[in-house]
Structures are given as structure tokens and as C-alpha cells.
Automatic annotation (TrEMBL):
It comes from Naumovozyma castellii (Yeast). Its cofactor is Zn(2+). Pfam families: Prenyltrans (PF00432). Coiled coil: none annotated. Residues 6-347 form the Prenyltransferase alpha-alpha toroid domain. This is Prenyltransferase alpha-alpha toroid domain-containing protein.
Length: 364
């Protein structure tokens, strides 16, 4: 079984989600920018010529770009997730929607926008405004009526990753570039404060594969992985490799004490200890491992990973991937299922979550 056997079904599954979008269901979804990114990125990874087909939709994405200015300051800017949320005088731009929109524009090769230094500066200033002075972490949005980080929001490692990635897409490459907009030292300290004793990163001392991937990807983009000790890196690699669920050998007996053990999870990855395997955690674990060591493909069993994805969570009837072998497929798990397989093929940039042929355009 390979991904290509069912490529057409996956493409149809993904395109159905996009067909619901522009115009027709305008009011329904505040997460539309996320849906568009998951779909366009997945189609691109399946080697559809997304630029050829979807360049005509660039205007729809641009409509979600919003500028805010207070008094005489230079405006800051970002993307809103839905036009129904874009109310005059009310600031609804957010870091996640801005990242989803920028990555989609990158895949569609919208150079005119992405090389506009004034707009990239405005977006970078928005990122700057979202950083919290007290600990260097980021809120996902600003207060509705001021250019101040919104205090009602959460500020975990996800938003640190999103903030750094947006700055990277806006042109920051060196630590000095990033430091024009954010306090990189405080940010690296915050990320380090989320390290867990057993390896990995997480809140309240409990490692989590998603947070671990966010922390490592952010450090990689900041060129600051050398801030982690060898000992911590070793512990993290061990913790990540142990997240691969197995129903054979010693790990079977370890797993049988796990209340969430399912023998059909064989080969998949769990996001935390004692949890079921899940397609999205395959991606977060593999991405973390490939950042930490060039030997990652030999440390975990990638052929069992492929079996888990292609034989358990891939839906052979409708196309798409689900989180396990019971749920219906959804776009998020489809995106990360395909991304995981492409990561194993070494054709995917896991740090930026886009195919390598797209990210290579940023490396010039
Ligand atoms: Zn999941």
C-alpha cells in the first residue's frame, strides 16, 4: 500500500472542503483560513499544481488582510480568520490566521505580497505587539481596542512557534533580524522554562509531543538549538522514540498497563504517555525527532509508522485520514497524515509544515 494508490480519493476529499469556502458559506466558520491552509498544503504535498489552479483565489485571501493604526503610529497588520469577524474599528487579526494565510500565499507563490517590505514590516510589528513583556511568550491576538497583547488569551508554546514562523516568513533569518521585533533572549528563556525533566517540552512539567515540536521548531528557526544541553537532547530523543506504540516485545507489556492501550495502534505515535496513538502525533513526534538528530529514521521504526498511517488511519472509501481507525477522516488529520509520510520520504519541511520544494524558495 502506498499513498499514491489512493491519491485521487484524497484529492477529492480535500477539494470537497475547499468547495464549501469562498462566498457560499461565508458566515459559518471562523477557522476558514486554517481550512484553506490544510487543504492547499495537502494538495501541494500530493503534487497538485496548486499555483496553477488556485492563483485566482488570491484575492479572497487578501480580503482577510487587515491594518490597524492608532493615532500617528505606523499601522500594524495581519489576517483575520473570517470576514464576518472583521468589524470596522474592532481588531480581530490573530497570529494563527496570519500564519495560515502567509503559508498559503507562499504555496501559491504570491511574491508581490511576500516581498513587499512595508507590509512584511507591518506584520512583523503585529508579532512584536503580541509578545508579553513579563515572560517573553506570545498571546495569539491583541485587545480589541488597543495595540496590546490580549490578556484573556492563552500564551503557550504554540504561539511562540507561530510568532517566530511568521517573522521568518516576513524575512527574519538571523537572531539580529528577529531581535528587531521581539525580545529573543526572553523568548528563548521562556521556551527553556517549558523543558521537562524526562525530556520534551510541556506545561506543568508534563511533556507533550505537540508542544515539543513547537518549541524545537521555534529554536531551530532562531538558530538557538545549541541552547539545549546534550543531556536534555538525549533524554528528549528517548522520550520521543518511546511514544511509538508497539504490540510486540517488551513494549507490549509496558503498553498493556496503559489504560489507553489498543493493539491496533501498533506503529503509531501517542502525544503523551498512556494515551492512544493518533495520526497528528505521528507528525509532531517525527518532526521533533528529525530536528534533534539526523539518525531519526533508524531510531524509530518508520516502516511501522507507514503501516499505521496507510492501513489504519487512511480512509480507503472516502479518502482522507482520521486520527485513529475508528473516527471519520478530517482535514487536519489528512494534512498531518500526508505530511508525516512526506517527512519520512524526506520531501517535507516539518519546521515550516510545507513541502520542501516550497520552502526551498525561502532559502535563497
Ligand atoms: Zn490528533
Amino acid at each position: 500500500m502506498s499513498l499514491n494508490n489512493n491519491r485521487k480519493k484524497h484529492i477529492k476529499f480535500i477539494e470537497r472542503h475547499l468547495a464549501l469556502l469562498p462566498g457560499s458559506h461565508e458566515a459559518q466558520d471562523v477557522n476558514k483560513m486554517a481550512i484553506v491552509f490544510y487543504a492547499i498544503e495537502s494538495l501541494c504535498a500530493l503534487e497538485i499544481d496548486t499555483k496553477e489552479i488556485y492563483t485566482k483565489n488570491l484575492g479572497w485571501i487578501h480580503k482577510h488582510y487587515s491594518k490597524i493604526s492608532l493615532e500617528n503610529d505606523e499601522p500594524i497588520a495581519g489576517f483575520v480568520g473570517s470576514l464576518t469577524m472583521d468589524i470596522a474599528g474592532v481588531n480581530t487579526i490573530s497570529l494563527p490566521n496570519t500564519l495560515f494565510a502567509l503559508l498559503t500565499l507562499l504555496i501559491l507563490d504570491d511574491r508581490a505580497f511576500l516581498t513587499d517590505s512595508i507590509e512584511m514590516g507591518r506584520i512583523s510589528s503585529f508579532v512584536s505587539a503580541c509578545q508579553l513583556e513579563e515572560n517573553g511568550s506570545f498571546m495569539s491576538a491583541l485587545n480589541f481596542d488597543s495595540i496590546e497583547a490580549s490578556s484573556v488569551d492563552s500564551n503557550d508554546l504554540r504561539f511562540c512557534y507561530i510568532a517566530v514562523t511568521i517573522l521568518y516568513l516576513c524575512g527574519s533569518r538571523t537572531i539580529n533580524d528577529f531581535s528587531r521585533y521581539i525580545d529573543t533572549e526572553k523568548l528563548v528563556e521562556f521556551i527553556s522554562s517549558q523543558k521537562c525533566n524526562v525530556g520534551g517540552f510541556g506545561q506543568y512539567g508534563e511533556p507533550h509531543a505537540g508542544y515539543t515540536s513547537c518549541a524545537l521548531s521555534a529554536l531551530k528557526l532562531l538558530d538557538s538549538l545549541d541552547r539545549l544541553s546534550e543531556e536534555f537532547i538525549e533524554k528528549s530523543i528517548t522520550w520521543l522514540v518511546q511514544r511509538q506504540v508497539s504490540n510486540i516485545g517488551c513494549s507490549k507489556f509496558e503498553n498493556e498497563n496503559n489504560a489507553s492501550y489498543d493493539e491496533f495502534d501498533h506503529g503509531g505515535f501517542q502525544g503523551r504517555e498512556n494515551k492512544f496513538a493518533d495520526t497528528c502525533y505521528v507528525f509532531w513526534c517525527l518532526n521533533s525527532l528529525q530536528i534533534l538528530t539526523p539518525d531519526w529514521q533508524t531510531l524509530c521504526n518508520t516502516s511501522l509508522v507507514r503501516d499505521f498511517l496507510l492501513n489504519r488511519t487512511q480512509n480507503l472509501v472516502t479518502g482522507g485520514f482520521s486520527k485513529n481507525d475508528e473516527d471519520d477522516p478530517d482535514l487536519y488529520h489528512t494534512c498531518l497524515g500526508i505530511a508525516s509520510l512526506k517527512l519520512i520520504d524526506e520531501s517535507f519541511n516539518g519546521v515550516l509544515c510545507i513541502p520542501k520544494n516550497i520552502s526551498s524558495s525561502l532559502e535563497s
